[in-house]
Write a structure and sequence with these properties.
single chain, about 260 residues, alpha/beta, Rossmann fold, six-stranded mixed β-sheet
């Protein structure tokens, strides 16, 4: 029997960002429901290519906080126009992969983790007096990285290249699918799902579903809403999520 036979897996990443994982799940016998909870769009105040070019040219270090940051920056300014002098830092493997696919071979990546804390632990970012750091990011999000880098003496700038748009799911249609396993890779996606299940029956149904969370912070947020049937993936990377799904398929699968 295929490893994921019997699992109905809901992939909640933005459209166009879960195809490889979906194919892997289907090859292992799982069923996939594509349910993007977020869309990625240009920011409310779009950044001009000339501004981004100047920011990249003047930065000593450029930190990309997500694969979307890489993709949307490339949509504004093609890779050949980027400054070759800056050190590029990726917040995790997925972000590093997006940079590598764009032709950048020298990318600094945390050894473990895929969040602000992991980036801040990099030895190369401990002593930053006088360094100019550019954070390529989306609208909103945590300020931990910018605050900590500033405290270390860096001059921090922001290049806001995208925003997330909520896509509320149809709870009636979802409930008709039976028992589902949701893959949740962002706190924002989880909030959208929880907000869509405000009705008592929807909330009760959601608490009975299974979850794979890509970060402990997401799992903690879920628990505050009674979503306790979840396990942790080591990272948001496809390989880590797939490994967690294999654990879900085991009768003795762990719970977080």
């Amino acid at each position: 029997m295929s490893a994921l036979h019997g699992l109905h897996i809901v992939l909640t990443r933005p459209a166009g960002q879960a195809e490889a994982l979906a194919e892997r799940i289907q090859a292992a016998g799982g069923e996939v429901l594509s349910l993007p909870l977020l869309a990625i769009a240009p920011p409310s105040n779009p950044i001009h290519a000339g501004v981004l070019h100047a920011q990249l040219a003047h930065a000593d270090v450029v930190i990309f906080i997500s694969p979307n940051a890489v993709r949307m920056a490339l949509a504004v300014l093609p890779a050949p126009d980027w400054s070759p002098e800056s050190r590029l830092v990726a917040i995790g493997q997925g972000t590093a992969r997006a940079l590598h696919e764009a032709g950048f071979s020298h990318v600094l990546i945390p050894r473990e983790g895929a969040d602000s804390e992991a980036v801040l632990a990099l030895p190369e970012l401990q002593h930053l007096a006088g360094q100019r750091i550019l954070l390529v990011r989306g609208e909103g999000g945590r300020e931990l990285l910018a605050t900590a880098l500033s405290e270390r003496g860096a001059m921090v700038e922001h290049a806001v290249v995208y925003r997330r748009v909520a896509l509320s799911p149809d709870m009636v249609a979802l409930r008709q699918q039976g028992v589902l396993t949701f893959v949740i890779t962002s706190s924002e996606a989880l909030r959208i799902l929880i907000n869509a299940a405000r009705e008592k029956d929807d909330a009760a149904w959601l608490r009975a579903q299974n979850f794979v969370f890509a970060h402990p912070r997401i799992a903690e947020q879920a628990k505050t809403h009674g979503l306790n049937r979840g396990i942790m993936a080591a990272s948001p990377d496809d390989a880590a999520v797939f490994a967690a799904l294999l654990r879900c398929a085991q009768p003795e699968g762990e719970s977080s």
